[in-house]
Design brief:
Number of domains: 2
CATH architecture of the largest domain: 3-Layer(aba) Sandwich
Structural class: alpha/beta
CATH topology of the largest domain: UDP-N-acetylmuramoyl-L-alanine:D-glutamate ligase
Bound molecules: zinc ion
CATH superfamily of the largest domain: Mur-like, catalytic domain
GO molecular function, one term: ATP binding
Distance between the termini: 34 Å
Strand content: 15-25%
Protein name: Lipid II isoglutaminyl synthase (glutamine-hydrolyzing) subunit MurT
Number of helices: 14
Pathway: Cell wall biogenesis; peptidoglycan biosynthesis
Helix content: 25-40%
Number of strands: 17
Organism: Actinoplanes nipponensis
Strand order of the largest sheet: 2-3-1-4-5-6-9-10-11
Oligomer: single chain
Shape: globular
Pfam family, one: Mur_ligase_M
Largest sheet: 9 strands, mixed
Length: 406
């Protein structure tokens, strides 16, 4: 590396360590920020010589990144931004901290994908899904798909691993030279009702979809989920036992296996490593308190709330909603979520915007009780499982109550 990059790396690491020591999070944002101030090409310099996979999409990227890093671990040390700092500052910091690893798996915020592809020259880019998120600031979904499509067109050598079930993702990736399709399902259809190519309605049946006005249609997937396993491109079925719940995580596992295969890792080697992932930065973590088994589920936009309802057991459920900066200030997305699956369960609500949630639940005819603190929620629920579904900062608040469980 150039001398300037070496100095920047060292300063970046020190700043991150000082920030951690001061109890200000994991320090990856500040560390990366300082490093990039000293050497604006630092990310490019740190990426050079590594085989890199990028993982992007609206939902599931932190978990899929964790799975992919675990799978690539078969080959050797892997650098990764495991704390979800998914912008270039976080990537810079993760690579600086890891030292010289042959591999890196980086979770990338959808908006930054083009820039991070430019700077890291990845071998593989995984595209998970696109749906509405943070209404007050995120790009409209079709616009994001266009940004991805343009970014991939500028890098024809990149191998793309993409979700065949999401028309927006397919449209973004369909013209790339090297693409492998996986099928991870798509529960949320409201952001891909019309074709991004021609604007005609998209027709869906039995997991298949096609545009009614142009040739865009679901490509044949080489990696698919079947029962509790994954079928690889040769047609072999692999049992995938995970600690993480839900069909959505089986899809994330299939994606990780597909990405790892692009690096030469066989599913038979990778699958046992996926089972080792018990929680991801507190998500899916289970904590025992006062006879309650509390499980934490993060849900931050309509598509991920649908997935959370699918994952949650029929048990007392605490919902918490905030609308602080990282959450987005606009909570009107609550009206995009169908809360009726919660009918008949004991529902507790809390968070800064509990009243927004209360109105929404009333409209959906779901009975609930408002609690002011997490402790009150625990006391109000009977012994046994308590499911907690919370959006971003609400989740972090509850995680803090549980001693920052990982
Ligand atoms: Zn069309």
């Amino acid at each position: 590396m150039p001398l300037r990059a070496k100095v920047a790396t060292s300063v970046s690491r020190t700043a991150a360590a000082l920030s951690r020591a001061a109890g200000r999070g994991d320090g990856s944002v500040i560390g990366g920020w300082i490093g990039l101030k000293i050497d604006p090409d630092l990310l490019k310099n740190l990426a050079a010589g590594r085989a890199i996979a990028l993982v992007s999409g609206t939902n599931g990227k932190t978990t899929t990144t964790r799975f992919t890093a675990a799978a690539l671990g078969v080959l050797g040390p892997v650098a990764t931004n495991s704390f979800g700092a998914n912008m270039p500052t976080g990537h810079t910091s993760a690579l600086a901290k890891a030292g010289a690893t042959p591999f890196a798996v980086l979770e990338v915020d959808e908006h930054y994908l083009a820039r991070v592809i430019d700077e890291t020259t990845p071998r593989v880019v995984a595209l998970l899904n696109l749906s509405r998120d943070q209404l007050d600031r995120a790009k409209e979904v079709a616009m994001m798909a266009q940004m991805w499509r343009t970014a991939l067109a500028a890098h024809p050598d990149v191998h793309v691993v993409a979700n065949a079930d999401d028309p927006m993702v397919v449209w973004a990736a369909v013209n790339t030279a090297h693409v492998v399709w996986f099928s991870a399902g798509q529960r949320w259809h409201d952001d891909s009702f019309v074709c991004p190519e021609c604007g005609s309605p998209i027709e869906r049946a039995d997991g298949d979809w096609r545009c009614t006005g142009c040739p865009l249609r679901r490509p044949q997937a080489q990696w698919t989920v079947e029962d509790d396993g994954v079928i690889d491109p040769r047609g072999d079925w692999h049992l995938v036992k995970l600690q993480l719940p839900g069909h959505v995580n089986l899809g994330n596992a299939a994606t990780a296996l597909a990405v790892a295969a692009e690096f030469g890792v066989r599913p038979i080697e990778a699958v046992p490593r996926l089972a080792g992932v018990a929680s991801v930065a507190g998500r899916y973590a289970q904590v025992e308190r006062d006879g309650r088994n509390i499980r934490l589920l993060l849900a931050k936009n309509p598509a991920s709330w649908l997935e959370a309802f699918d994952m949650a057991e029929v048990a007392p459920t605490l919902l918490s909603i905030n609308a602080r900066d990282p959450d987005g200030f606009d909570t009107s997305w609550l009206y995009d979520v169908d809360f009726s699956p919660l009918r008949g369960r004991q529902v507790l609500i809390t968070g800064d915007r509990a009243y927004d949630l209360a109105v929404r639940l009333e409209v959906n005819d779901v009975a609930f009780r408002h609690v002011h603190t997490f402790d009150e929620a625990v006391r109000a629920s009977p012994p046994g499982r308590l499911e907690v579904i919370a959006n971003y900062t609400a989740f972090q608040d509850i995680r803090a109550e549980l001693d920052r469980v990982n």
